[in-house]
Write a structure and sequence with these properties.
The chain has about 130 residues and is mainly alpha-helical. Helices cover about 45% and strands about 5% of the residues. The chain is built from 6 helices and 3 strands, in the order H-E-H-H-E-E-H-H-H.
């Protein structure tokens, strides 16, 4: 609904999903916290673009877009196998580092890749 019109209302969503207004408000707030949409009075809308996002949020968005593009171009790739350099070359590589928010990155990747990204450290190490 959001992608079709660019904006949705709390009441419209509650009726569509058959849940309470409070449930919709809570869910929209959670999606807003995850930067999946922008909360506005009475509903939510699609973000106007990455230009309005903070630098860190743009980095995570770019990562999600890159992973989705790679998986689309190379069907044998899978978002579930995504690891950082620190896991491929421990002791030699340290990125992305301990401050990297893997859960947030995986949520964005899942949303961009059609729900295919799950928990961290599920990948088999390359040989």
């Amino acid at each position: 609904m959001l992608r079709q019109s660019g904006r949705v209302g709390v009441e419209e969503l509650a009726i569509h999903f058959g849940v309470t207004l409070q449930t919709i408000r809570r869910d929209l707030n959670e999606l807003s916290d995850a930067k999946a949409l922008v909360r506005v009075h009475g509903g939510a809308m699609i973000a106007s673009g990455v230009a309005n996002l903070a630098y860190e949020a743009r980095q995570y968005r770019a990562l999600a877009d890159a992973v989705a593009a790679l998986c689309a171009a190379y069907p044998t790739l899978s978002p579930q196998r995504l690891v950082g350099h620190s896991e491929i070359a421990p002791g030699r590589k340290t990125d992305p580092g301990p401050a990297f928010d893997w859960p947030h990155a995986r949520r964005l990747i899942a949303a961009t890749s059609g729900g295919q990204a799950t928990g961290h450290n599920t990948a088999a190490r390359p040989t």
